[in-house]
Predict the structure.
Amino acid sequence: MEKINVQKGQLIVVSGPSGAGKGTVLAQAFEKYPNLRYSVSVTTRAPREKEVDGVDYYFKNIDEYMKMLHDNEFLEHQCVYGNYYGTPRKKVEEMLENGFDVVLEIDVKGALEIKSRFSEAVMIFITPSEKATIEERLKKRSTEKEEELMVRIGSALDELKQAEKYDYIVVNEDAEKSAEDIAAIIRAEKCSTAKNKTFLNKLIYGGN
Ligand code: 5GP
């Protein structure tokens, strides 16, 4: 099993269908849990209105993206809805090394790749309580053209089928409660026996 070059912070992977309200929940989780950091992904998708380069994504053209890929700058990367999205390796490792808990908000394929390579990653799936909500929220957001909207609705329903591969499910009916759930999951993970092996060894057998 590949090891990420960190021991201090917790790597948290969050996925969920478009329209699950991930953004709102995560924004609240960041307020509640100051040790949490967001990994800003790199994408070739065009910015939406109000999206800020370096905050929502690092927006790159395809040549810039391919150069980063070639230079092994991504921890994982995927093509989603015809655009590329990648997690910047160095930034994530730096934040983890500095003791921050880092959230990757990525699609299911990327998430499962991370889990297969880094077993210590905590996988959280955010979903609305009803399927119909996905469609409603996506339509309301209306940032996509009709055709793209249909693709997003279809793949959101496909993503739901992968939910059972995650460690935790957060049913988002109330963003504040869901954010608390996320904070609770992270806290519980930090207390898990698996994450305290080094501590236990020291406690029992001494040494550094
Ligand atoms: P959107 O275009 O709506 O911002 O994102 C589309 C999908 O791409 C979402 O499911 C989002 O979680 C996913 N995504 C965003 N960044 C990354 C990334 O770095 N890697 C992967 N695998 N998926 C990402």
